[in-house]
UniProtKB/TrEMBL annotation:
Organism encoding this protein: Hibiscus sabdariffa (roselle)
A Pfam family of this chain: Exo_endo_phos
Start and end residues of each Endonuclease/exonuclease/phosphatase domain: 51-271
Residues that span the membrane, as ranges: 32-54
Record key words, sorted: Membrane, Transmembrane, Transmembrane helix
Protein name: Endonuclease/exonuclease/phosphatase domain-containing protein
Superkingdom in the source lineage: Eukaryota
Amino acid sequence: MNVGAHWVPGSKILLYFLGSEGGSEVLAQVLFLFRSFLVLVRFVGVMAILAWNVRGLGNKDTNRALRKSIQKFQPDIIFLSETKQKKGFLEKVKTKMKMAHSFYVEPCRITGGLACGIPRGLALWWSNDTQITVLRSGKHFIDAEISIKGESEWFGSFIYGPPYKEEKREFWEMMTQMRDASEECWLVIGDTNVVASQEEKLGGIPFNLNDARVYFDFIDGKGLIELPISSGSFTWLNQRSEEEAILEKLDRALCSVEWSVRFPKAVGLLDVAIGSAHAPVIIYPYGLSKKYKRDFKFESKWLLEEECKSTV
């Protein structure tokens, strides 16, 4: 019996549907209706930051999902990791997404992994209402000074943490030396590629504290706070069958005490993971307006009801 695994971060669970006659068609229709509903929900805030490991921006489904996320969350800043594309292609996509400005860390080879020292490309886009000065960049990060509509500046580090153990220590030690978080207004956002506790992992090899120790040294040494993100416990799925499925929380936002004091109403959300194994992370520094609608929650147990197929 085949098992199809579909993951919706808003439900905090995997949606498993045991294959039966017509079962896959029912599930496909249910998920289509669910995703169509999400497009209609618009999250309203003064400013939004979207960070997403797209795992390749050449995919039509990924481009479509990005466009829908932009329509829904209206981000002023967009950070994309693992773009796997050169600047020329990304500029065309940026224009279609109606973003005004950009900065890139390009992959020097679309295939071949880490052969040339740059993983798979980073992109930072921002609107005309946002002023960004890139201070430094590298194969795993873009560090910038940010001002929204002329307000006082703060620092933002947009990261794609190394997935390989031998590079993790070098990366987090570099981040530790970047600035003094005790005195500066600083936000760190992106794919950390770090699981910080057993609660952030479901399936696969159990959590190992040693794997995250250098990451803890970074956040403890800088006194950073992790911003809570609603609508999901995990941000990544290996997209395999039920028995082999692994879910992890890899994508997150960290901030200094100074940043949290300046933005006490900051809200974090997850969008639905479509076109990538990662879910987009959205941060509203100024919070959401009263027009905010709670995200739709799809319960996997609905698929077990006899009425599900007839209703769809």
